[in-house]
């Protein structure tokens, strides 16, 4: 807000008019977005849906899970690895054929 006050004090008339146009445009866009949000929420209520219903559909992970190919006990814990990506420390220098899952 301080920056705006400083700008207003030092700006010329043409700069102030340009700033007013930008602000009016921003206010109009904001108002339109708020109206659109209200329309969408009203439509959801009308159809008996919630925002969570839409998020469940949108957040579906389309990647497939890869089953672990290797399993080893390391420091008292079971460590599994798919065989993809960087080899975990537990599998460094180990014959993988002996640790198939």
UniProtKB/TrEMBL annotation:
Keyword Coiled coil set for record: yes
Pfam hit, one: Histone_HNS
Transport listed as a keyword: no
Protein name: H-NS histone family protein
Coiled coil feature spans: 13-47
SMART domains for the chain: HNS
UniProt keyword list: Coiled coil
Entry-linked InterPro entries: H-NS_C_dom (IPR027444), H-NS_C_dom_sf (IPR037150)
Organism for this UniProt entry: Pseudoalteromonas shioyasakiensis
Domain DNA-binding protein H-NS-like C-terminal: 60-101
């Amino acid at each position: 807000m301080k920056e705006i006050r400083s700008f207003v004090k030092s700006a010329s008339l043409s700069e102030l008019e340009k700033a007013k146009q930008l602000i009016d445009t921003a206010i109009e866009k904001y108002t339109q977005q708020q109206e659109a949000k209200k329309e969408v929420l009203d439509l959801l209520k009308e159809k008996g849906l919630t925002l969570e219903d839409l998020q469940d559909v949108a957040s579906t992970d389309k990647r497939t899970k890869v089953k672990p190919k290797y399993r080893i006990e390391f420091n008292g814990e079971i460590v599994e690895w798919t065989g993809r990506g960087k080899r975990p420390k537990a599998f460094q220098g180990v014959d993988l054929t002996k640790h198939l899952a």
